[in-house]
């Protein structure tokens, strides 16, 4: 591409992003499949052009989708992947052949479907939301590519999520916890019932370990639609795991048998759980099971070794070590803390937290309190960001005033946290670290800031 073409593409991308972000944001919902159904009907039903593996749940969806993508491509399939939210670039949401689509292709797809978007907007009381347009773009792009299979992460919930216009061949549900209660319900079983909506007639439901009430809701739905059920802890599971340099070594029980000596370059028990859930989903998609035996082990090993999950307990700097993590609810934060205890030998850890309104921030802070010597409170650029002073007041209630400092500007918060980590007692030298967490947006913005100044 010539330099002038690159400039044009950059300008067009900025225009498209601006138009998309002017629509209803992801946190504003009007639960209905009417508008997205109208859009895909006008587009010729691109969501039916390929088989779909759909991933719902509360935590671990994006990483599990990444793992499924990596495994399927390892077996020679062309894969389209849709995930949300993004860390740094809107194009991360639509992935083809393992890479975010180019700015040129993103713009081209948007321009192609824009007339149909306008038609749906004109016929609807409520225009298509940002997320609904992104879903339409993803299905259109994957159909045009074409792909052999689409791996689709649910945005929120399940039944009324825009991605759910597709009838997934394999419906994956990662662990369900309390989150987005204002939209999904007041308790875990109710939320699981909403997420169970992705399980369709004659599908295969792959269920990660769930609380009893959540499992009941998911299995009930599977029985109603005559779906086959595979459950972690019964049909598949993690048999063994041990910490290794840069990640962990795991032995997994899949639907077709055991998979040994798998290196996973990610930290924490929950990532091993994500891995075996992804493996079972791919086995189900490929038709593997007890009668056929395991799928090719070397391919599985190579795929898992290649998995990356940006912003999920990701080391972005050394001396001191800085980790960014997108945990944004108490269950996710608890898993993060457990992974840090297991995989890192910090003698002093400083937390940087920025969150958004509507989250159980006190629950997240309680999970962090025992592992963080000090906490730096900040805020991200989101319109929904919790003001740093407000977050600081909550932090003082949990940590005490002497352990909390407030820096509303994220770059200053990062600098302060690094200084605090480096200023510990002599016996902490070499064992100090910084954890940046509380929101996907905070993790993404910190990742951007730190990428240009790695130590």
SSE layout and pairings?
Layout: H1 3-21, H2 34-42, E1 52-56, H3 61-74, E2 79-82, E3 94-96, E4 99-100, H4 103-123, H5 130-144, E5 149-153, E6 170-173, H6 181-184, H7 188-195, E7 204-207, H8 212-224, E8 228-231, E9 237-244, E10 247-253, E11 258-264, H9 269-286, H10 297-306, E12 314-317, E13 321-324, H11 330-343, E14 348-353, H12 361-369, E15 374-377, H13 388-399, E16 404-406, H14 410-422, E17 432-437, H15 440-451
Helix pairs in contact: 1-4, 2-4, 2-5, 3-9, 3-10, 4-5, 7-8, 11-12, 12-13
Task: Give a short overview.
Helices cover 42% and strands 18% of the residues. It is of the alpha/beta class and 455 residues long. It folds into two domains: 3-306, Mur-like, catalytic domain (UDP-N-acetylmuramoyl-L-alanine:D-glutamate ligase, 3-Layer(aba) Sandwich), CATH 3.40.1190; 314-451, Alpha-Beta Complex (Protein-Tyrosine Phosphatase, Chain A), CATH 3.90.190.
Characterization of the model:
The chain is built from 15 helices and 17 strands. With 455 residues, it is of the alpha/beta class. The strands form three sheets. The protein has an eight-stranded mixed β-sheet, sandwiched between helices. Strands 12-13-17-14-15-16 form a six-stranded mixed β-sheet. Strands 9-10-11 form a three-stranded antiparallel β-sheet. It has two domains: 3-306, UDP-N-acetylmuramoyl-L-alanine:D-glutamate ligase, CATH 3.40.1190.10; 314-451, Protein-Tyrosine Phosphatase, Chain A, CATH 3.90.190.20. It starts with a helix and ends with a helix. It has helices at 3-21, 34-42, 61-74, 103-123, 130-144, 181-184, 188-195, 212-224, 269-286, 297-306, 330-343, 361-369, 388-399, 410-422, 440-451, and strands at 52-56, 79-82, 94-96, 99-100, 149-153, 170-173, 204-207, 228-231, 237-244, 247-253, 258-264, 314-317, 321-324, 348-353, 374-377, 404-406, 432-437. Helix 4 packs across helix 5 (130-144) and helix 11 (330-343) packs parallel to helix 12 (361-369). Mean pLDDT is 92; it is low at 1-7. Helix 8 links the parallel strand 7 and strand 8 (228-231).
């Amino acid at each position: 591409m010539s330099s002038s073409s690159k400039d044009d593409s950059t300008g067009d991308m900025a225009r498209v992003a601006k138009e998309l972000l002017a629509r209803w944001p992801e946190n504003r919902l009007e639960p209905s499949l009417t508008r997205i159904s109208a859009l895909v009907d006008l587009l010729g039903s691109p969501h039916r052009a390929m088989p779909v593996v759909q991933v719902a749940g509360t935590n671990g969806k994006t990483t599990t989708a990444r793992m499924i993508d990596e495994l399927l491509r390892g077996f020679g399939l062309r894969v389209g992947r849709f995930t949300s939210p993004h860390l740094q670039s809107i194009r991360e949401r639509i992935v083809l052949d393992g890479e975010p689509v180019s700015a040129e292709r993103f713009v081209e797809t948007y321009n192609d479907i824009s007339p149909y978007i306008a038609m749906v907007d004109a016929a609807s009381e409520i225009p298509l939301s940002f997320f609904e347009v992104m879903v339409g773009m993803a299905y259109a792009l994957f159909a045009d590519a074409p792909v052999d299979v689409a791996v689709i992460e649910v945005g929120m919930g399940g039944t009324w999520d825009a991605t759910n216009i597709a009838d997934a061949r394999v419906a994956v549900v990662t662990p369900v916890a309390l989150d987005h209660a204002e939209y999904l319900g007041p308790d875990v079983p109710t939320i699981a019932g909403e997420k169970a909506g992705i399980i369709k007639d004659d599908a295969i439901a792959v269920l990660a370990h769930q609380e009893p009430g959540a499992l009941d809701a998911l299995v009930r739905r599977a029985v109603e639609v005559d779906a086959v059920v595979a459950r972690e802890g019964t049909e598949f599971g993690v048999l063994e795991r041990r910490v290794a340099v840069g990640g962990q070594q795991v032995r997994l029980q899949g639907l077709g048998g055991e998979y040994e000596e798998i290196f996973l370059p990610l930290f924490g028990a929950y990532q091993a759980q994500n891995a075996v859930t992804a493996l079972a989903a791919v086995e189900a998609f490929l038709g593997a099971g007890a009668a056929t035996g395991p799928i090719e082990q070397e391919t599985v090993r190579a795929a898992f070794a290649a998995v990356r999950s940006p912003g999920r307990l990701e080391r972005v700097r050394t001396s001191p070590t800085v980790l960014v993590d997108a945990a944004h609810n108490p269950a996710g934060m608890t898993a993060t803390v457990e992974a840090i205890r297991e995989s890192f030998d910090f003698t002093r850890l400083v937390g940087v937290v920025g969150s958004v309104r509507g989250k159980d921030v006190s629950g997240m802070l309680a999970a962090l309190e025992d592992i963080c010597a000090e906490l730096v409170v900040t805020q991200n650029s989101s319109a929904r960001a919790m003001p740093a002073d407000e977050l600081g007041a909550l932090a003082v209630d949990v940590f005490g005033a002497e352990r909390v400092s407030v820096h509303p500007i994220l770059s200053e918060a990062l600098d302060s946290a690094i200084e605090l980590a480096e200023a510990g007692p002599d016996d902490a030298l070499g064992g100090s670290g910084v954890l940046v967490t509380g929101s996907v947006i905070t993790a993404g913005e910190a990742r951007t800031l730190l990428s240009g100044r790695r130590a």
